[in-house]
Amino acid sequence: GDPILLPELSDEIRRQLAYDDREADSLRMAEIQSQMVLPLTVRDRILGALTLATAGSARRYTPAHLELARALATRIALALDSARLYAEAQHAIAARDVTLALVSHDLRSPLGVILMQTELLVRTTPDDATPRLVKSFDAIRRSAQRMRRLIQDLLDFASIETGRLSVERARQPVAQ
User: Taking the complete model, does pTM exceed 0.70, yes or no?
Assistant: First the structure.
């Protein structure tokens, strides 16, 4: 979790850094002269490491370079974490949209049946039916229509958030 500054890489240090002799040979052949390794840490989690190296020149990393690299590593870690959080948010939005579509479909079908049956009851109600019965049928119809509007509002809200809402312009009387 701590940054490492290796201003000078000897063959011995290369062997210690390498996983095996082949990697040590690669480091030597690449003429790596100086190296810094910094953890990419965000919210007390290490996401990875940033490794910077100089090769084939007399340039060597100093503590001042390490401080600059530390600031760079902090920004990289924040960018990686932000990208991860953004991807998770997009995944959650997509899951919500799928759930909303399924729920709205599952609610619309029985709601349609309720509305059709209520209309049938209203039409076939005898003229001598009690006002209370007629009022009950009307209450069922109004509630079902309200539920249908709420479901449509939910779908419209999801469409607005995803940028897929289409608006149909039409003239409307002001009184309505």
Answer: no
